[in-house]
Specification:
By secondary structure, the protein is an alpha/beta fold. 38% of the residues lie in helices and 21% in strands. Strand 2 and strand 3 form a beta hairpin.
Length: 333
């Protein structure tokens, strides 16, 4: 069966590839020169360079399209069914985050594309759980780790939030998946044994200076938020590592995989009346933004909740002519 992928951000022969759809030939391969996926050329990328091309892209920027988008005749979910499915997954995420706060759930992986509210829901729940601490001027019992982190930085963070009442959130911190030492530390912290012992098995002047022991028991909870769908990675080396993490965690896939899913997620938040909270947007302007997104959902650089906010910013620039600016800044050339 034909399988399609959407490259959100990548490169081919030195040129940027943004939000382009291809037929998949061979899944992600991690090599000495980077991470590549092999696809058939489309009308704008790789045409004339053979029947298959390799595009450089990290797994987080590759969206695997559902079969119902590429196989006519297979029944699709209605819009209402899609939004109900997505809403149910976010409700599960909400309840599982509460369970992480109470330490009933010690490890959870949350998977979904960028800009659809994964982090927002988790952080809001943690902030709510720490309201009492804030009133008492007590430091929050959670930490959000974003972006790049070294192995020793990871070890230090695990130590600082190792008590039973702490929650560590790794948000868009996928670099740990590509570092052997960091992965081993993370696997130890996510272990299902009652005692999770973390060790640093080499001399470190930094740890000594900071008074951090070379071994400790980790009793906190961990939430790992990522754009990488573990089920879609076929690189043997990476898959082995991801499988080891997945076996230790509850795995919450928000099931937002296609452009249609993403648009309906935006529509869902819009219908709750919260999409434009805190922004000076009239009801008519909000409806106009949603109509524009619907009309251009296959042309935008990124289909996400952030897209709606960018449109709000353009309305502030030019209330009557914002679509002209949107065409230049938000759509693919």
């Amino acid at each position: 069966m034909t399988r399609m992928v959407n490259i959100v951000n990548g490169s081919y022969r030195g040129k940027t590839v943004i939000n382009e759809r291809f037929e998949l030939v061979k899944d992600v391969v991690v090599g000495a020169k980077g991470t590549f996926i092999t696809v058939k050329p489309n009308a704008t990328v790789g045409n004339g360079w053979g029947d298959k091309i390799r595009i450089r892209a990290i797994p987080a920027d590759i969206v695997y399209l559902d079969s119902d988008e590429v196989s006519p005749g297979i029944p699709k979910e209605s819009d209402e069914e899609v939004m109900s499915r997505i809403s149910d997954r976010f409700e599960i995420l909400h309840e599982m985050t509460k369970a992480a706060v109470s330490n009933d759930v010690r490890a959870m992986i949350v998977v979904g594309p960028p800009g659809i509210g994964k982090s927002y829901g988790v952080i809001k729940e943690l902030e709510h759980a720490n309201l009492f601490n804030n009133v008492k001027n007590i430091a929050p019992s959670y930490e959000i780790v974003k972006g790049n982190t070294t192995a020793i930085g990871l070890y230090t963070t695990l130590f600082n939030y190792s008590d039973k009442n702490s929650v560590l959130v790794f948000d868009d911190c996928d670099t740990v998946l590509y570092d052997e030492l960091s992965l081993n530390l993370l696997k130890a912290a996510l272990d299902t044994n009652k005692k999770r012992k973390i060790c640093w098995n080499s001399a470190s002047s930094y740890l000594e200076k900071e008074g951090i022991p070379d071994t400790f028991n980790f009793e906190g909870s961990i939430i790992f938020i990522t754009n990488i769908n573990f089920d879609n990675i076929q690189s043997k080396k990476l898959q082995d590592h991801l499988s080891a993490l997945q076996s230790r965690c509850h795995y919450v896939d928000l099931t937002i995989d296609t452009p249609r899913d993403k648009f309906l997620r935006i529509k869902q938040i819009y219908q709750t009346g919260t999409l434009f909270n805190g922004y000076n947007v009239t009801e008519e302007q909000g409806a106009e933004i949603m109509e524009w997104i619907d009309e251009n959902k296959d042309k935008v650089r990124e289909l996400s909740l952030r897209l709606a906010i960018k449109a709000v910013e353009l309305i502030a620039v030019s209330p009557t002519n914002w679509k002209r600016f949107a065409q230049a800044t938000l759509l693919k050339n």
